[in-house]
Design a protein that fits this description.
The protein is of the alpha/beta class and 246 residues long. The protein has a single domain (5-234), classed as Metallo-beta-lactamase, Chain A. It has helices at 42-48, 66-69, 72-81, 96-107, 174-179, 202-206, 209-212, 224-229; strands spanning 5-10, 24-29, 32-36, 56-60, 88-92, 120-124, 129-133, 136-142, 152-158, 161-165, 184-188, 217-220, 236-237, 242-245. The protein has a seven-stranded mixed sheet. It has a seven-stranded mixed sheet with strand order 7-8-9-10-11-12-13.
Length: 246
């Protein structure tokens, strides 16, 4: 069992609060690299950190909002033009394939019809599924967030470590199951205490902190409200470029 590195390439909300990139989390272990979510700004974030996109073999998507999957058309086209030859696997909720085609055609007409130079597979993760994806074991549980397709929290087992991620959601006890025993639980904290539909505030999470059962908690998807307060909070918060080992 070796160490697993987690880099927050993007830790902001949909609106670039604090000048942060949208959700994109890079996990590296024993030469394997994969992303959890790929927001619209993700290719910029990847290249800003000097990371070769061709080394990323798998992209896991929590839900079909642009700040979580909208970077895929750019990632795929960049792979085509840079002559990538390594296979790419993209996995996410039902409807991902159709929404990806729609996005690619909206941004770059006919791009979805282009035959890639590399093998590319789009894999559907049904709600409640437990899938083996290469060396990863991925659990997808539905949470509470409207995007016209099932939204997920994900639990990923990689090289003997477990990473759980809330995705975007208001509080649901599903998060207790996903976080339990995880080496790292990455959780949305959009606002400090303001409650908005389909999103989680820090106060609601803090009230349940003792029940989470995770070894380490890091907050992400931060609005301006949370970014201002983060230095004074008794909890770890993500920043763009932050890298940890678990």
């Amino acid at each position: 069992m070796g160490s697993v590195s987690v880099t927050f390439l993007g830790s902001g909300d949909a609106f670039g609060s604090g000048g942060r990139f949208q959700t994109c989390i890079l996990v590296s272990s024993d030469g394997e690299r994969f992303l959890i979510d790929c927001g619209a700004s993700s290719l910029i974030a990847i290249k800003k950190r000097g990371i070769d996109p061709s080394l990323i073999g798998t992209i896991l998507i929590t839900h079909l909002h642009g700040d979580h999957f909208g970077g895929l058309p750019f990632f795929i086209l960049d792979a085509q033009f840079s002559k990538r030859d390594r296979p790419l696997l993209i996995a996410g909720p039902p409807g991902l394939r159709e929404r990806l085609v729609t996005a690619m055609e909206a941004f770059f007409p006919k791009s979805s019809q282009t035959k890639q130079r590399f093998a590319m597979e789009v894999l559907k993760l049904p709600p409640g599924s437990r899938s083996v994806i290469g060396t990863l074991r991925v659990t997808a549980e539905e949470v509470v967030h409207f995007c016209a397709a099932p939204p997920y929290a994900l639990r990923v087992e990689c090289n003997g470590r477990t990473i759980a991620y809330s995705g975007d959601t208001e509080w649901t006890d599903t998060l207790l199951r996903m976080a339990s025993g995880a080496d790292l639980f990455i959780c949305e904290a959009y606002y400090f205490e303001k409650k908005v539909p389909f999103h989680l505030d820090y106060a609601s999470l803090a009230a349940r902190r003792d029940k989470l059962g995770c070894k380490r908690l890091i907050l992400t998807h931060l609005s301006d409200d949370m970014i201002r307060r983060a230095p004074d909070l008794p909890v770890e918060c993500a920043e763009d470029g932050k890298t940890i080992s678990i």
